[in-house]
């Protein structure tokens, strides 16, 4: 394994455990829907492929790793939501952008049906325009949150001999 791959996997493992600890400390758990998603994921990973007696590369430890990783990702999203951070463009952001750029988009029609159709088109355009910026902002917020968790954690790494 390359040094780069090792560092990536180590950082990922540390972040995953920090998220799981932060979620437990904040009494944050998975929703019923998220638990069902993990159950489905586990079922898919443990099931045999059609026409095969057994999946030759099925590894119970790998399945557990994937489930724990997905669990931590979902909990990280919940932790970020508690901080007020979302990767999605909010309706408020769309409305504000529309108001700030009214000269570009123009006023909405008076007719309710025409107004709804026009707004749907404008909404999609604005969301597409803001999406990348919002994702970047969210990723920066996640990074800052994880940096904060790391700085407050007592992480001890054992040396691994080659």
Would you give an account of this structure?
It is elongated and about 70 Å long. The longest helix is centred in the last third of the chain and has 41 residues, at 112-152. The mean pLDDT is 90. With 162 residues, it is an all-alpha fold. It has a domain at 1-82. Helix 1 (3-25) crosses helix 3, helix 2 (32-46) packs antiparallel against helix 3 and helix 4 packs across helix 6 (112-152). It is built from six helices and no strands. It is 72% helix and 0% strand.
Please name the defining characteristics of this protein.
162 residues; mainly alpha; 6 helices; 0% strand; elongated
H/E element order: HHHHHH
Largest sheet features: none
Helix content: over 70%
How many DSSP helices?
A: 6
Give the strand content: under 5%
Number of strands: 0
Structural class: mainly alpha
Indicate the low-confidence ranges by residue numbers.
Answer: none
Cα separation of the termini: 11 Å
Tell me the radius of gyration: 22 Å
> What value does the average pLDDT take?
90
Shape: elongated
């Amino acid at each position: 394994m390359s040094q780069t791959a090792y560092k990536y996997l180590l950082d990922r493992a540390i972040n995953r455990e920090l998220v799981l600890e932060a979620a437990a400390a904040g009494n944050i758990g998975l929703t019923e829907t998220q638990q069902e998603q993990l159950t489905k994921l586990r079922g898919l990973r443990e099931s045999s492929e059609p026409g095969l007696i057994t999946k030759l590369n099925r590894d119970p430890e790998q399945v557990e790793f994937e489930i724990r990783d997905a669990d931590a990702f979902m909990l990280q999203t919940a932790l970020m939501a508690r901080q007020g951070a979302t990767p999605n463009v909010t309706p408020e952001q769309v409305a504000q952008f529309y108001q700030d750029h009214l000269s570009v988009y123009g006023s909405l029609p008076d007719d309710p049906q025409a107004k709804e159709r026009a707004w749907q088109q404008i909404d999609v355009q604005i969301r597409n325009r803001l999406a990348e910026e919002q994702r970047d902002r969210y990723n920066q917020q996640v990074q800052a949150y994880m940096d904060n968790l790391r700085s407050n954690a007592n992480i001890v790494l054992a040396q691994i001999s080659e």
